[in-house]
Write a structure and sequence with these properties.
Strand order of the largest sheet: 5-6-7-3-8-9
Bound molecules: adenosine-5'-triphosphate
GO molecular function, one term: ATP binding
CATH class of the largest domain: Alpha Beta
Keywords: ATP-binding, Nucleotide-binding, Transport
Number of domains: 2
Distance between the termini: 29 Å
InterPro entries: AAA+_ATPase (IPR003593), ABC_transporter-like_ATP-bd (IPR003439), ABC_transporter-like_CS (IPR017871), P-loop_NTPase (IPR027417)
Largest sheet: 6 strands, mixed
Order of helices and strands: EEEHEHEHHHEHEHEEHEHEEHEHH
Protein name: ABC-2 type transport system ATP-binding protein
Pfam families: ABC_tran
Shape: elongated
Length: 316
């Protein structure tokens, strides 16, 4: 478990992290979401004792990082996948890390196997693709078999296969009961990967809740109805006070439960060609919840067009 209380970090005039309090539970993948410059990396560095807070504190399983006896056995992190000597092989890199942290050399082959790098373990890490480098970084994070794992933007620049692999791997780590904290500015990816979200903007906490709650609280859930007897259904729904948008071919109904709409159609002998819940997207939720945070919108706007998949509704 990770707990931050009133965490702040100032760099000169920039308040990178502003009085941030949150907790990250075990057994779940928690997404740490915010646009570029929101303060995610700074927060992660403070969790790992690499940056000193200007105010507040953060604890891992009740202890500050510097109080941990054998940090790599408690917390593992992937901050920068390219942080590896280019001429060292993957195995040599991990052996060096294991040795300098008094971890068993046997664990090196175990983690290489876990991340699927056994076959290339003796190749120069400098020649690795980004996806392979990310796997090597994850192997390093797992060396001490820690219960708490931090990943800073782990899918940045990866191809779809690499993204899928990371997503599945994170889920597996959480299913093993570990605390998995993953930062990203990619909305669609977090919608698929994270069960919980901590959302920040300009260093401040915007929301902490489950991904579903985040979308539900910020966007309206509606029901799409298609029928050859649309007019009949529309007037029946209207009589019951549902609010309806009609585009001529379908109705979008809000303020009424999907089961009730289906029952009403059956009672009126109306054939249905479609009756489907429409859920808001994580991106809509973002825009709704960040309100007048202009800087935040600008950053989202920058990120969205480059990632068409980010517009996918949650769960698709
Ligand atoms: N060492 C530093 N010195 C001065 N300013 C810094 C330093 N590190 C971060 N900042 C500033 O703090 C703010 C937060 O940066 P941070 O890298 O934590 O954001 P982020 O959410 O991780 O962004 P990204 O998604 O781009 O990695 C930014 O305004 C950044 O310019």
């Amino acid at each position: 478990m990770i707990e931050a209380e009133g965490l702040s970090k100032r760099y000169g005039k920039t308040l990178a992290v502003d009085n941030l309090s949150f907790s990250v539970q075990s057994g779940r993948v928690t997404g740490f979401l915010g646009p570029n410059g929101a303060g995610k990396s700074t927060t992660m560095r403070m969790i790992l004792g690499l940056d000193k807070p200007s105010g507040g504190n953060v604890r891992i399983d009740g202890k500050r990082y510097k109080e941990l006896h054998n940090p790599l056995r408690t917390v593992g992190a992937l901050l920068d996948a390219k942080w590896v000597h280019p001429n060292r092989s993957a195995r040599a890199h991990l052996r060096w890390l294991a040795k300098s942290n008094r971890l068993s050399p046997k664990r090196v082959d175990e983690v290489l196997d876990l991340v699927g790098l056994t076959d290339v373990a003796n190749r120069r890490a400098g020649g690795f693709s980004l996806g392979m480098s990310q796997r090597l970084g994850i192997a390093a994070a797992l060396l001490g078999d820690p219960q708490v794992l931090l990943f800073d933007e782990p899918v940045n620049g990866l191809d779809p296969e690499g993204i899928l692999w990371i997503r599945r791997f994170m889920h597996r780590l959480a299913e093993e009961g570990r605390t998995v904290f993953v930062s990203s500015h990619l909305l669609s990816e977090m919608a698929l990967t994270a069960q919980e979200l901590i959302v920040i903007g300009k260093g401040k906490l915007i929301s902490q809740c489950s991904t579903e709650e985040f979308v539900a609280q910020a966007t309206e859930n509606t029901v799409l109805v298609r029928s050859p007897q649309l007019a009949l259904l529309r007037s029946a729904l209207g009589e019951l006070g549902a609010s309806i948008r009609d585009d001529g071919e379908s109705l979008v109904v809000s303020g009424m439960d999907i089961a009730k709409i289906g029952e009403l159609a059956a009672a009126k002998n109306v054939a249905l060609h479609e009756l489907s819940p429409q859920r808001g997207s994580l991106e809509e939720a973002f825009i709704q919840l960040t309100g007048d945070a202009v800087e935040y919108h600008a950053a989202l706007g920058d990120a969205a067009p480059a990632q068409p998949a980010d517009l996918m509704p949650l769960g698709k």
